[in-house]
Protein backbone atom coordinates (compact mmCIF):
# COMPACT_ATOMS: atom_id res chain seq x y z
CA UNK A 1 0.00 0.00 0.00
CA UNK A 2 1.07 3.58 -0.61
CA UNK A 3 1.02 6.13 2.17
CA UNK A 4 -0.32 9.68 2.36
CA UNK A 5 2.15 12.17 3.78
CA UNK A 6 0.26 15.46 3.64
CA UNK A 7 -2.20 16.97 6.09
CA UNK A 8 -5.37 16.65 4.05
CA UNK A 9 -6.96 13.25 3.42
CA UNK A 10 -7.80 11.66 0.09
CA UNK A 11 -11.42 12.88 0.20
CA UNK A 12 -10.29 16.48 0.57
CA UNK A 13 -7.74 16.10 -2.20
CA UNK A 14 -10.41 14.70 -4.50
CA UNK A 15 -12.55 17.68 -3.55
CA UNK A 16 -9.91 19.90 -5.18
CA UNK A 17 -10.15 17.81 -8.36
CA UNK A 18 -13.95 17.96 -8.26
CA UNK A 19 -13.87 21.72 -7.87
CA UNK A 20 -11.55 22.13 -10.86
CA UNK A 21 -13.76 19.89 -12.98
CA UNK A 22 -16.88 21.83 -12.00
CA UNK A 23 -15.40 25.34 -12.09
CA UNK A 24 -14.62 25.30 -15.81
CA UNK A 25 -17.50 23.06 -16.84
CA UNK A 26 -19.07 25.79 -18.95
CA UNK A 27 -15.95 26.33 -21.03
CA UNK A 28 -16.06 25.17 -24.65
CA UNK A 29 -13.95 22.27 -25.84
CA UNK A 30 -11.74 22.57 -28.94
CA UNK A 31 -12.00 26.38 -28.95
CA UNK A 32 -9.91 29.08 -27.36
CA UNK A 33 -11.69 30.60 -24.38
CA UNK A 34 -12.12 34.21 -23.38
CA UNK A 35 -11.16 36.33 -20.44
CA UNK A 36 -13.80 36.49 -17.69
CA UNK A 37 -13.59 37.28 -14.00
CA UNK A 38 -14.00 34.52 -11.42
CA UNK A 39 -17.59 35.45 -10.55
CA UNK A 40 -18.72 35.26 -14.18
CA UNK A 41 -17.16 31.83 -14.63
CA UNK A 42 -18.48 30.31 -11.41
CA UNK A 43 -21.96 31.71 -11.96
CA UNK A 44 -22.30 29.61 -15.09
CA UNK A 45 -20.60 26.46 -13.79
CA UNK A 46 -23.29 23.81 -13.92
CA UNK A 47 -22.02 20.29 -14.47
CA UNK A 48 -19.13 17.83 -14.43
CA UNK A 49 -17.33 15.95 -17.12
CA UNK A 50 -15.53 12.72 -16.32
CA UNK A 51 -12.41 14.17 -14.66
CA UNK A 52 -13.46 13.73 -11.05
CA UNK A 53 -15.13 10.35 -11.59
CA UNK A 54 -12.04 8.90 -13.23
CA UNK A 55 -9.75 10.31 -10.52
CA UNK A 56 -11.87 8.81 -7.77
CA UNK A 57 -11.98 5.47 -9.59
CA UNK A 58 -8.23 5.41 -10.22
CA UNK A 59 -7.69 5.94 -6.50
CA UNK A 60 -9.69 2.79 -5.80
CA UNK A 61 -7.72 0.96 -8.50
CA UNK A 62 -4.48 2.01 -6.82
CA UNK A 63 -5.50 0.12 -3.69
CA UNK A 64 -5.44 -3.20 -5.58
CA UNK A 65 -2.44 -5.53 -5.39
CA UNK A 66 -1.13 -5.15 -8.92
CA UNK A 67 0.93 -7.88 -10.61
CA UNK A 68 4.67 -7.22 -10.52
CA UNK A 69 4.91 -7.98 -14.23
CA UNK A 70 2.18 -6.84 -16.61
CA UNK A 71 1.28 -7.73 -20.17
CA UNK A 72 -1.55 -6.77 -22.51
CA UNK A 73 -3.85 -9.42 -21.05
CA UNK A 74 -3.38 -8.03 -17.53
CA UNK A 75 -3.86 -4.47 -18.75
CA UNK A 76 -7.11 -5.50 -20.41
CA UNK A 77 -8.34 -7.08 -17.18
CA UNK A 78 -7.53 -3.91 -15.25
CA UNK A 79 -9.30 -1.86 -17.91
CA UNK A 80 -12.41 -3.96 -17.39
CA UNK A 81 -12.17 -3.45 -13.63
CA UNK A 82 -11.81 0.30 -14.17
CA UNK A 83 -14.85 0.33 -16.43
CA UNK A 84 -16.92 -1.31 -13.69
CA UNK A 85 -16.06 1.59 -11.39
CA UNK A 86 -17.03 4.36 -13.83
CA UNK A 87 -19.86 2.46 -15.53
CA UNK A 88 -22.78 4.20 -13.82
CA UNK A 89 -21.52 7.68 -14.71
CA UNK A 90 -20.27 6.56 -18.12
CA UNK A 91 -23.62 5.15 -19.28
CA UNK A 92 -25.33 8.43 -18.44
CA UNK A 93 -22.58 10.61 -19.95
CA UNK A 94 -21.02 8.65 -22.82
CA UNK A 95 -20.22 11.74 -24.90
CA UNK A 96 -18.16 13.21 -22.06
CA UNK A 97 -15.73 10.31 -22.38
CA UNK A 98 -14.66 11.26 -25.89
CA UNK A 99 -14.48 9.05 -28.97
CA UNK A 100 -11.73 6.56 -28.11
CA UNK A 101 -12.44 5.55 -24.49
CA UNK A 102 -15.87 4.06 -25.37
CA UNK A 103 -14.13 1.90 -27.99
CA UNK A 104 -11.45 0.84 -25.49
CA UNK A 105 -14.06 -0.08 -22.91
CA UNK A 106 -15.68 -2.49 -25.41
CA UNK A 107 -12.52 -3.84 -27.06
CA UNK A 108 -10.40 -6.89 -26.36
CA UNK A 109 -7.45 -8.73 -27.85
CA UNK A 110 -5.62 -7.16 -30.78
CA UNK A 111 -8.21 -4.40 -31.19
CA UNK A 112 -7.72 -3.36 -27.56
CA UNK A 113 -3.93 -3.47 -27.90
CA UNK A 114 -3.95 -1.23 -30.98
CA UNK A 115 -6.36 1.25 -29.43
CA UNK A 116 -4.37 1.82 -26.23
CA UNK A 117 -1.07 1.89 -28.15
CA UNK A 118 -2.28 4.83 -30.25
CA UNK A 119 -4.22 6.63 -27.51
CA UNK A 120 -2.25 9.83 -26.85
CA UNK A 121 -4.99 11.94 -25.28
CA UNK A 122 -4.68 13.54 -21.83
CA UNK A 123 -6.89 10.95 -20.07
CA UNK A 124 -4.05 9.26 -18.19
CA UNK A 125 -2.68 12.65 -17.10
CA UNK A 126 -6.16 13.71 -16.03
CA UNK A 127 -6.22 10.82 -13.55
CA UNK A 128 -2.59 11.26 -12.47
CA UNK A 129 -2.81 13.90 -9.69
CA UNK A 130 -4.39 11.47 -7.24
CA UNK A 131 -1.59 8.95 -7.88
CA UNK A 132 0.93 11.63 -7.03
CA UNK A 133 -0.95 12.52 -3.88
CA UNK A 134 -0.80 8.95 -2.56
CA UNK A 135 2.87 8.56 -3.59
CA UNK A 136 2.21 5.79 -6.11
CA UNK A 137 5.38 4.16 -7.41
CA UNK A 138 6.37 4.14 -11.07
CA UNK A 139 5.07 0.62 -11.68
CA UNK A 140 1.62 1.48 -10.34
CA UNK A 141 1.59 4.70 -12.33
CA UNK A 142 2.58 3.00 -15.57
CA UNK A 143 0.13 0.13 -15.13
CA UNK A 144 -2.89 2.29 -14.27
CA UNK A 145 -2.09 4.66 -17.13
CA UNK A 146 -1.28 2.05 -19.77
CA UNK A 147 -4.53 0.11 -19.29
CA UNK A 148 -6.22 2.83 -21.38
CA UNK A 149 -3.28 4.95 -22.66
CA UNK A 150 -0.13 3.08 -23.72
CA UNK A 151 1.11 5.79 -26.09
CA UNK A 152 4.50 7.22 -24.93
CA UNK A 153 3.15 10.78 -24.87
CA UNK A 154 0.24 9.78 -22.62
CA UNK A 155 2.49 7.84 -20.22
CA UNK A 156 5.07 10.64 -20.22
CA UNK A 157 2.40 13.21 -19.36
CA UNK A 158 1.00 11.17 -16.48
CA UNK A 159 4.49 10.69 -15.03
CA UNK A 160 5.15 14.44 -15.36
CA UNK A 161 2.03 15.29 -13.36
CA UNK A 162 2.69 12.66 -10.67
CA UNK A 163 6.27 13.80 -10.17
CA UNK A 164 5.04 17.41 -9.99
CA UNK A 165 2.38 16.61 -7.38
CA UNK A 166 4.88 14.72 -5.24
CA UNK A 167 7.41 17.56 -5.36
CA UNK A 168 4.79 20.22 -4.61
CA UNK A 169 4.18 18.68 -1.19
CA UNK A 170 7.51 20.09 -0.08
CA UNK A 171 8.49 22.85 -2.48
CA UNK A 172 7.22 25.36 -5.02
CA UNK A 173 10.16 24.54 -7.32
CA UNK A 174 8.76 21.54 -9.17
CA UNK A 175 9.49 22.03 -12.88
CA UNK A 176 12.80 20.16 -12.89
CA UNK A 177 11.22 17.17 -11.17
CA UNK A 178 8.25 17.35 -13.52
CA UNK A 179 10.52 17.15 -16.58
CA UNK A 180 12.42 14.28 -14.99
CA UNK A 181 9.13 12.43 -14.57
CA UNK A 182 8.20 13.03 -18.20
CA UNK A 183 11.50 11.54 -19.36
CA UNK A 184 11.14 8.49 -17.09
CA UNK A 185 7.58 7.94 -18.29
CA UNK A 186 8.60 8.08 -21.95
CA UNK A 187 11.38 5.52 -21.40
CA UNK A 188 9.06 3.24 -19.44
CA UNK A 189 6.44 3.28 -22.19
CA UNK A 190 8.99 2.70 -24.96
CA UNK A 191 10.54 -0.23 -23.10
CA UNK A 192 7.15 -1.91 -22.70
CA UNK A 193 6.16 -1.23 -26.30
CA UNK A 194 9.46 -2.69 -27.53
CA UNK A 195 8.88 -5.77 -25.36
CA UNK A 196 5.63 -6.52 -27.20
CA UNK A 197 7.32 -5.85 -30.55
CA UNK A 198 5.24 -2.80 -31.38
CA UNK A 199 6.18 0.69 -32.48
CA UNK A 200 4.51 4.09 -32.48
CA UNK A 201 5.59 7.59 -33.44
CA UNK A 202 5.62 10.15 -30.64
CA UNK A 203 6.88 13.56 -29.63
CA UNK A 204 8.80 14.51 -26.48
CA UNK A 205 6.50 15.76 -23.72
CA UNK A 206 9.47 16.95 -21.67
CA UNK A 207 10.49 19.20 -24.56
CA UNK A 208 6.91 20.45 -24.93
CA UNK A 209 6.83 21.34 -21.23
CA UNK A 210 10.13 23.18 -21.42
CA UNK A 211 9.02 25.12 -24.50
CA UNK A 212 5.68 26.20 -22.97
CA UNK A 213 7.35 27.21 -19.69
CA UNK A 214 9.97 29.24 -21.58
CA UNK A 215 7.65 30.94 -24.07
CA UNK A 216 4.57 31.08 -21.81
CA UNK A 217 2.59 30.23 -24.94
CA UNK A 218 0.48 27.12 -24.33
CA UNK A 219 -0.58 26.91 -27.97
CA UNK A 220 3.05 26.46 -29.08
CA UNK A 221 2.77 22.77 -28.18
CA UNK A 222 0.24 22.00 -30.95
CA UNK A 223 -0.48 22.92 -34.55
CA UNK A 224 -4.24 22.41 -34.74
CA UNK A 225 -6.59 22.98 -31.80
CA UNK A 226 -9.41 20.98 -33.35
CA UNK A 227 -7.20 17.92 -33.83
CA UNK A 228 -4.87 18.20 -30.83
CA UNK A 229 -6.87 20.07 -28.20
CA UNK A 230 -7.28 17.12 -25.82
CA UNK A 231 -3.85 15.65 -26.53
CA UNK A 232 -1.35 15.22 -23.71
CA UNK A 233 1.11 17.49 -25.52
CA UNK A 234 -1.31 20.41 -25.04
CA UNK A 235 -3.09 19.76 -21.75
CA UNK A 236 -0.09 18.78 -19.60
CA UNK A 237 2.20 21.74 -20.43
CA UNK A 238 -0.78 24.10 -20.08
CA UNK A 239 -1.66 22.74 -16.63
CA UNK A 240 1.94 22.90 -15.46
CA UNK A 241 2.39 26.51 -16.60
CA UNK A 242 -0.85 27.57 -14.91
CA UNK A 243 0.06 25.84 -11.64
CA UNK A 244 3.56 27.35 -11.68
CA UNK A 245 2.19 30.87 -12.01
CA UNK A 246 -0.61 30.28 -9.49
CA UNK A 247 1.77 29.09 -6.79
CA UNK A 248 3.75 32.32 -7.15
CA UNK A 249 0.80 34.14 -5.53
CA UNK A 250 1.69 32.42 -2.25
CA UNK A 251 -1.93 32.21 -1.07
CA UNK A 252 -4.69 29.77 -2.04
CA UNK A 253 -7.42 32.34 -2.70
CA UNK A 254 -5.51 34.15 -5.44
CA UNK A 255 -4.06 30.87 -6.70
CA UNK A 256 -7.52 29.34 -7.20
CA UNK A 257 -8.81 32.46 -8.91
CA UNK A 258 -5.88 32.43 -11.30
CA UNK A 259 -6.19 28.73 -12.12
CA UNK A 260 -9.90 28.99 -12.90
CA UNK A 261 -9.61 32.19 -14.93
CA UNK A 262 -6.61 31.03 -16.97
CA UNK A 263 -8.00 27.54 -17.59
CA UNK A 264 -11.19 29.11 -18.88
CA UNK A 265 -9.30 31.68 -20.96
CA UNK A 266 -7.00 29.07 -22.53
CA UNK A 267 -10.01 26.92 -23.34
CA UNK A 268 -9.76 23.89 -25.64
CA UNK A 269 -10.03 21.46 -22.67
CA UNK A 270 -10.67 23.85 -19.77
CA UNK A 271 -12.22 21.46 -17.23
CA UNK A 272 -9.34 19.00 -17.47
CA UNK A 273 -6.68 21.72 -17.36
CA UNK A 274 -8.40 23.21 -14.30
CA UNK A 275 -8.80 19.89 -12.48
CA UNK A 276 -5.16 18.89 -13.04
CA UNK A 277 -3.96 22.32 -11.92
CA UNK A 278 -6.20 22.19 -8.85
CA UNK A 279 -4.66 18.82 -8.01
CA UNK A 280 -1.23 20.43 -8.01
CA UNK A 281 -2.49 23.27 -5.81
CA UNK A 282 -4.12 20.77 -3.45
CA UNK A 283 -0.79 19.02 -2.98
CA UNK A 284 1.00 22.30 -2.23
CA UNK A 285 -1.47 24.21 -0.04
CA UNK A 286 -2.95 21.34 2.00
CA UNK A 287 -5.84 22.35 4.28
CA UNK A 288 -5.74 26.02 3.28
CA UNK A 289 -6.91 25.23 -0.24
CA UNK A 290 -9.67 22.93 0.96
CA UNK A 291 -10.98 25.68 3.24
CA UNK A 292 -10.97 28.08 0.30
CA UNK A 293 -12.81 25.61 -1.94
CA UNK A 294 -15.45 25.13 0.78
CA UNK A 295 -15.82 28.88 1.08
CA UNK A 296 -16.35 29.29 -2.67
CA UNK A 297 -18.91 26.49 -2.80
CA UNK A 298 -20.94 28.21 -0.09
CA UNK A 299 -21.25 31.22 -2.41
CA UNK A 300 -21.70 29.19 -5.60
CA UNK A 301 -23.39 25.94 -4.58
CA UNK A 302 -23.42 23.09 -7.05
CA UNK A 303 -26.78 22.80 -8.71
CA UNK A 304 -28.69 19.62 -7.96
CA UNK A 305 -28.61 16.92 -10.60
CA UNK A 306 -25.34 18.10 -12.13
CA UNK A 307 -23.24 15.11 -11.13
Could you characterize what this model shows?
- This protein has 307 residues and is mainly alpha-helical.
- The chain has one domain (10-299): ADP-ribosylglycohydrolase fold, CATH 1.10.4080.10.
- Helix content is 66%, strand content 0%.
- The chain has 16 helices and no strands.
- The chain has helices at residues 10-23, 38-43, 51-62, 72-92, 100-106, 109-117, 123-133, 138-146, 152-168, 175-195, 205-215, 225-228, 232-247, 252-266, 270-285, 287-299.
- α1 packs across α16 (287-299) and α10 (175-195) packs antiparallel against α11 (205-215).
- It is globular.
- 52% of the residues are buried.
Summarize the structure.
The chain is built from 16 helices and no strands. The protein is an all-alpha fold and 307 residues long.
- The assigned structural class equals mainly alpha
Strand content: under 5%
What is the average per-residue confidence, as pLDDT, rounded to a whole number? Answer: 94
The CATH class designation is Mainly Alpha
Cα separation of the termini: 30 Å
How many beta-strand elements?
0
The second-level CATH architecture is: Orthogonal Bundle
Specify the helix fraction band. 55-70%
Output the number of helix runs.
16
- Which fold does the CATH topology refer to? ADP-ribosylglycohydrolase fold
How would you classify the quaternary structure? single chain
Rg over CA atoms:
18 Å
